[in-house]
Design brief:
CATH superfamily of the largest domain: P-loop containing nucleotide triphosphate hydrolases
CATH topology of the largest domain: Rossmann fold
Number of strands: 8
Radius of gyration: 27 Å
CATH architecture of the largest domain: 3-Layer(aba) Sandwich
Shape: globular
Largest sheet: 5 strands, parallel
Distance between the termini: 54 Å
Number of helices: 24
Strand content: 5-15%
Number of domains: 4
C-alpha cells in the first residue's frame, strides 16, 4: 500500500511549482514581501485548480524562517514542522463533515491559544459553503477580528452559497480553470519524470476531458497508464473515458446534416449499447462543430444552427431527470425538422458578423424598447447586462477586442494600489470577450462576482480610463451567460434585423438603490434607538 497517486506525488511545494494561477501566487507573494498579510482569505474556484495546495504553501511560507525568493525553504525547523502530519498549528477543517455550530464553537474556544511552534496559527476551512447558517454566524465575529497570531484561509467551489457577511470580511481570490497550455506543460513534465510515453493527441484529449481541473487530468493520466502496456495514444484515452473515436463523431455529424434521421438514431443506439456516455458524445459533437466554425472559419449556416441545437440538447441532458437517450433522440428529431427548413435558404447571401443584428431578449422574453426604459427608469442587474450586451453587438469588432486584451494585462501593475487594488484584482479574474468602439463585455466564471462588479460599473469605467486610457462602457457576465449570448449571436447571424443602441442614461440598477435605501432607513432607526436608551448598553440585531 506504499503507492502514492500521481496527483499527490506531484503536488506543488512552493509558489513557483503551481501551474496556471500566476495572478493568485503573485498577489500572495507580494503580500508576504510587503508584510501586508490579510487576517482572512477566501479561495474560490472550480475543483482541482490548486486552492488547498496554495493554502498549504501559503501557510508554510508565512511561517518559514529562511525564505528563498518568497518561497518556503522546506528545510528550516518551521517548514519541517508545518509539513508534518503532527503539526498542531496548521489546522485543516473539512466543513462538509464538520458544519455545525458546536464544531465552530470548539474552534473558537481554542483560537486564543498561541501557536505551539510556528509564528502563525493557520485555520484552513475547506468546502466552507457547507457550513450551516448557525455555524456561519458563530464564525462571523472571530473571522472579523481574530487574534494577531491567527490567519483564516477559507476554500469553496460554490461562492454563491457563502453569505455576503463572510465575503466582506475576507480577501477573496478567485481561481480559474487551468489553461490548456499550463496543463500540457505539467503533464509533459510529469510523463518525463515517470517515464510515460504519450502522444500529443492523447495529452490534448486528457486535457479536454479534464475541463481545466489539474487533479482530474493527473488522475486520468495514471488510470490510462495502468490500462496501456506501451505508448499512450488518442484512442486509448477515448476508450478509458468511454468516448467513441473522432471518426465516429464526424460520421454521426454527417448523418445528422444529411437529414438521415433513422440512421442517426440507430447510430446513437449503437453507441449507447456499447456503453458510451451520451453526454460525452454530445460534448464531442459541440467541440467538433465549434472547431469547424470558429477555428476553420466554416460559416455554413447549417453548422451554426446544428451547434445551437446541440448546446440546447446538452443543457437538457445535464439538468433533466429524463433519460439522456430519450432527450438526445427527441433532439435529433427536432434538428432534422429545423435543418430541413433551413436548407431551402442555404444558398442565400450570407451576412458578416458586423452586419448581423438582433434585439436580445430579457429573461421574461420581452424585447427591450427605449420608450419602455423611459417609462420605468429602473432596471435589475439582469436587464443592465442584457442592454449592454445588445449595445456591444451593434458595432462589435475584433480589432477593438484585441486592443483591450493587450492593455488588460497592464492591470497587474496596479494590483496593489491602495485605493483600487481589490477591485483591480477582481477585474483581472475576468476576460474581455467582445468589444465595440464604446462597449466591452467581460466574462467571469461565476455570476456572483460579475453581478458585484456591475454594481460598481461607474467606478470600474473610471479605473479603466484612468489606468489604461480605455474609455468604455463595461458589463460583466458569467460563463453561462456568455455562452447563451454567443449562441444567440450565431443563430441570428444571417437575419436581416438590426441591433439598436439603447440609451444607457435610462439605466438605474435597482439593487444598488434598494440597498442604499435600506441602509439609510436602518441608520435612522439605529439613531432613534440610541437616543431612547442613552444610558443602557445595547446590541442591535
Amino acid at each position: 500500500m506504499s503507492h502514492l497517486a500521481i496527483y499527490r506525488k506531484y503536488r506543488p511545494f512552493n509558489f513557483d511549482e503551481v501551474s496556471g494561477q500566476k495572478v493568485i501566487t503573485t498577489i500572495l507573494k507580494n503580500a508576504i514581501n510587503n508584510n501586508n498579510i490579510s487576517h482572512a482569505y477566501l479561495f474560490t474556484g472550480p475543483r482541482g485548480t490548486g486552492k488547498t495546495s496554495i493554502a498549504k504553501i501559503f501557510a508554510r511560507t508565512i511561517n518559514c524562517e529562511n525564505l528563498i525568493n518568497l518561497n518556503p525553504c522546506n528545510q528550516c525547523d518551521s517548514c519541517l514542522n508545518s509539513s508534518s502530519k503532527e503539526c498542531v498549528d496548521i489546522i485543516e477543517v473539512d466543513a462538509a463533515s464538520n458544519n455545525g455550530v458546536d464544531e465552530i464553537r470548539e474552534l473558537k474556544s481554542k483560537i486564543n491559544i498561541v501557536p505551539s511552534f510556528l509564528k502563525y496559527k493557520i485555520y484552513i476551512i475547506d468546502e466552507v459553503h457547507m457550513l450551516s447558517i448557525g455555524a456561519f454566524n458563530a464564525l462571523l465575529k472571530t473571522l472579523e477580528e481574530p487574534p494577531s497570531h491567527v490567519i483564516f484561509i477559507l476554500a469553496t467551489t460554490e461562492i454563491q452559497k457563502v453569505p455576503s457577511t463572510i465575503l466582506s470580511r475576507c480577501q477573496v481570490l478567485e481561481f480559474k480553470k487551468i489553461s490548456s497550455i499550463d496543463m500540457k506543460n505539467r503533464i509533459i513534465e510529469i510523463c518525463d519524470k515517470e517515464k510515460i510515453e504519450i502522444s500529443n493527441e492523447a495529452i490534448d484529449e486528457i486535457i479536454s476531458s479534464s475541463d481545466g481541473c489539474m487533479r482530474d487530468a493527473l488522475s486520468l493520466l495514471e488510470k490510462i497508464n495502468s490500462y496501456c502496456n506501451s505508448k499512450i495514444e488518442l484512442e486509448d484515452v477515448r476508450t478509458v473515458c468511454d468516448k467513441p473515436s473522432k471518426k465516429e463523431i464526424i460520421s454521426l455529424i454527417d448523418l445528422i446534416l444529411s437529414k438521415d434521421i433513422i440512421n442517426s438514431i440507430d447510430r446513437v443506439n449503437t453507441l449507447y449499447q456499447n456503453n458510451y456516455d451520451l453526454i460525452y458524445i454530445v460534448e464531442d459533437i459541440i467541440k467538433e462543430l465549434d472547431d469547424r466554425i470558429f477555428i476553420k472559419k466554416d460559416r455554413n449556416k447549417e453548422l451554426q444552427d446544428l451547434l445551437s441545437e446541440m448546446i440546447k440538447i446538452y443543457d437538457k441532458m445535464k439538468s433533466s431527470s429524463v433519460s439522456k437517450k430519450i432527450i438526445f433522440e427527441v433532439g435529433l428529431l427536432d434538428i432534422a425538422n429545423n435543418i430541413e427548413n433551413i436548407s431551402r435558404e442555404i444558398f442565400s447571401e450570407k451576412k458578416t458578423e458586423e452586419q448581423c443584428v438582433d434585439p436580445i431578449k430579457l429573461e421574461n422574453d420581452t424585447i427591450v424598447k427605449e420608450e419602455n426604459l423611459k417609462e420605468t427608469n429602473k432596471f435589475s442587474n439582469a436587464d443592465f447586462k442584457t442592454i449592454r450586451i445588445n449595445n456591444t453587438f451593434v458595432n462589435a469588432n475584433k480589432e477593438f477586442l484585441n486592443n483591450i486584451k493587450n492593455k488588460w494585462l497592464e492591470l497587474k501593475n496596479y494590483a496593489f494600489d491602495k485605493e483600487n487594488g481589490a477591485i483591480i484584482c477582481n477585474l483581472l479574474d475576468g476576460s474581455p470577450v467582445v468589444a465595440s468602439n464604446e462597449y466591452v463585455v467581460i466574462d467571469y466564471l461565476y455570476s456572483s462576482l460579475a453581478d458585484k462588479l456591475n454594481e460598481e460599473y461607474k467606478k470600474i469605467e473610471k479605473i479603466l480610463n484612468d489606468y489604461l486610457q480605455l474609455n468604455y462602457h463595461i458589463v460583466a457576465i458569467s460563463d453561462s451567460e456568455w455562452n447563451e449570448a454567443r449562441t444567440e449571436y450565431i443563430k441570428k447571424l444571417n437575419n436581416n434585423e438590426k441591433y439598436n443602441i439603447i440609451d444607457d442614461k435610462y439605466i438605474v440598477l435597482t439593487d444598488n438603490n434598494s440597498k442604499k435605501e435600506v441602509r439609510k432607513d436602518q441608520e435612522i432607526i439605529d439613531n432613534k434607538i440610541y437616543e431612547l436608551f442613552d444610558s443602557v448598553d445595547i446590541e442591535i440585531k
